[in-house]
Design a protein that fits this description.
Elements (H helix, E strand, L loop, with lengths): L2 E2 L4 H4 L6 E5 L22 H12 L2 E5 L4 H11 L4 E3 L4 E4 L2 E4 L12 H7 L2 H8 L4 E3 L11 E5 L3 H10 L5 E8 L15 E7 L4 H12 L6 E5 L13 E4 L5 H6 L4 E3 L4 H14 L3
Parallel strand pairs: 1-13, 2-3, 2-11, 3-4, 11-12, 12-13
Antiparallel strand pairs: 4-5, 5-6, 7-8, 8-10, 9-10
Helix pairs in contact: 2-9
């Protein structure tokens, strides 16, 4: 079970914070992916005010998401951020410049992992095998370079075994959490479908966080992360502290480690509490 923020002093006192890796939906932003809304859609300045405080103090904020480089670039420009980790850790942006992370994918297959998946027929293989249960997550599958984005409801272990049987044991299908809307043509109602990423094994948010810190000459003691779901647990593998905002689901809270810090506030309000706690260690 996680540690209440009020009792997290011993964990936070080990840090010399320089960077905060932040999940986006349900963590930094509220309903409708708005920085200025809470999870009920009510107006709030909590996250925006904390973001300004982080900028002022020199605490770098790095967005971490399944979104594409272009999406994160535009989102970052609106709130003054240049660094980001996209496409579930396969795309790293430092000072606005992208780096693709290939993981265990054999070199030289194509210009990007997404091109390689298409050229080798792996996307077609998954869609044909799981016909009626899996489809491209249109239109958000467009413009991607590191992962192929799909939606539906499948067993990822079965999918991985299928990929391995076709000579692609270096590829993985990863469940990135439930989608809000219904997909009746797939036989799925509200919050029954999941978003899936087809990506190279050996990549992920934790790998990308470690790579970012390496490029900046920083260690885990200089970094913290915020999240709201089990899908983002990798964010904490390379950082000195992990914050879990209060709107996290009960399964996520139960599965959290004893040094995961649970904020009192939900989404942006909880994110602001995490920033305040980190800024206190920078003084």
């Amino acid at each position: 079970m996680p540690l209440p923020l009020a009792e997290a002093g011993p964990v936070l006192d080990r840090l010399t914070p320089r960077v905060l890796f932040s999940d986006v939906d349900g963590t930094l932003v509220g309903r409708g992916a708005s920085l200025l809304a809470d999870m009920d859609g009510q107006p709030t300045l909590a996250a925006a005010t904390a973001l300004v405080a982080a900028h002022t103090a020199g605490l770098a904020v790095v967005l971490v998401s399944g979104r594409t480089r272009a999406q994160l670039f535009e989102s970052g420009r609106l709130i003054g951020l240049r660094d980001a980790i996209g496409e579930l850790g396969t795309v790293l942006m430092v000072d606005g410049e992208p780096e693709l992370l290939w993981g265990e994918m054999p070199p030289g297959l194509a210009a990007t992992p997404v091109d390689a998946f298409a050229t080798l027929g792996l996307v077609e293989l998954l869609l044909k095998t799981f016909d009626g249960r899996l489809e491209l997550h249109a239109p958000w599958h467009l413009g991607r370079s590191g992962t192929v984005l799909l939606r539906g409801k499948v067993d990822t272990a079965e999918a991985d075994a299928l990929l391995a049987a076709h000579g692609a044991g270096w590829a993985r299908l990863v469940d990135n959490g439930r989608l809000r809307g219904p997909y009746p043509h797939l036989g799925l109602g509200h919050r029954e479908a999941s978003a899936y990423h087809l990506l190279p094994a050996g990549t992920g948010k934790g790998v990308a966080v470690a790579r970012y810190l390496e490029r900046r000459g920083l260690g885990p003691e200089h970094a913290a992360a915020t999240r709201d779901s089990t899908a983002d647990v990798q964010l904490g593998t390379a950082t000195g502290a992990m914050f879990l905002v209060a709107n996290a689901g009960p399964d996520t809270v139960t599965a959290a480690g004893p040094e995961t810090i649970l904020t009192e506030g939900a989404a942006g309000a909880g994110w602001a509490q995490a920033v305040t706690a980190l800024l206190a260690r920078m003084e």
